Amino acid sequence: MKVRHKNMIKLFLKLFLLTFLLNPIQALGAVQFLTGYELGASVDAYATSGTFSYQTSVVRTGTYALRSNPTGTAVGLVRHGTLSAAGVHSGAGALKDVYISFYFRVDTLPASASEEILEVTATGGTSLQGAVRITSAGKLQLYDSANAQAGSDSTTALSTATWYQIDVRIQSSNTGTGEVKINGTSEISTTADFKNASSNHGGVSIGKVVNRNGNSVDFYYDDFVSSNTAYVGSHKIKVLIPTGVGDVNDWGGNAADVDDIPDDTATTDSSSAADQRQTYDVTDSSTAGVSGTINAVMLYSKIREATSGASLISCTIRSGTTNSDTTAADKTGYTNTFKLLETDPNTASAWTTTSIDAVEIGAYEDASSPVRTQLADNSLQVSFTESTSSTATQGNAKIKYLGGKLRLLSGRLRIF
Length: 416
Fold this sequence. Notes:
The chain is mainly β. 7% of the residues lie in helices and 46% in strands. Strands 1, 3, 4, 8, 12, 13, 14 and 16 form an eight-stranded antiparallel beta sheet that branches. A six-stranded antiparallel beta sheet has the order 2-5-15-9-10-11, with no helix packed on it. Strand 13 and strand 14 form a beta hairpin. The longest helix is centred in the N-terminal third of the chain and has 21 residues, at 2-22. The termini are close together.
């Protein structure tokens, strides 16, 4: 009896360790921005420059990935920042810390020295706070606000034509913490001056951001998430698009009018009076390939006032009977508007695939708005971490851990 009891304890210890090694607890906190580049165009960037493209030939997840492939002294970059309450995307944030998780592939390394692959800039501008470079040998380097290397080169050299998970932390401080991880392993960890004057972090630029050594490069990026509290780490991003009219159909909407990727304004839905809301059902999680732990969702809407006036327009994520709106704002021309949520507004708990399957997206014209609202495009990007599985055996019993559940595969399990 004692032997069997001891064996059972060993079995559950094995399962416990496998569970937490393969599925570590993530304390995500405040995700600031996310994109899998699945909108197919630079509507997810608050600024761009040089040679870049949203392309479909080389991707890690979904349909699109970002490519930066400038030649010689040219650059190619997009900038991601933070969102205001009204859903405006900009570099006006003031983050004291930033944790960036993304996937990176290099097809053409710098021929000599190094070039930047990522840069963190100061609030409201382009002043350098910290940067990551890649060398001609494929090794990553971390640089501080004075453009001096912080720490040593990464031990790992990136191979060409291979996707890598890259995590970068840059703390806004004159003695800030800087870190670079490759596939979950910390390769550079140091302290340095990552604060330009009195500024905090405003934006993250990716691509060949600045010409450092005149090299032609070819970089790919996918599944980008920034947070001010913790890495998202391993994850994927998929996009859900309108598939039908939702529970609220004040506009008499048509999902086919607002499901375009890349975005366009050829087809739209419009309100006919003030205090009208329109929502749409979206692709379900199984069809989109969303599973496991939902880290965050981000709504994208291209919206404007249909007639001239002091409009008050919101974009909305609807869960159950709860509407989570951006702050109403005047939108005289088509405006790229975003809403990011880490928790389900209907339950104040973490999103699940079940709640994702019930979510609706859309827009609202405020009761006091004197003009009509026009919506051109609408979609929801979802960051998720897939569940992993593990098995353990004890005697003739074989048990599998999958997505937070234990399942007896074979044999007989007895508990004493």
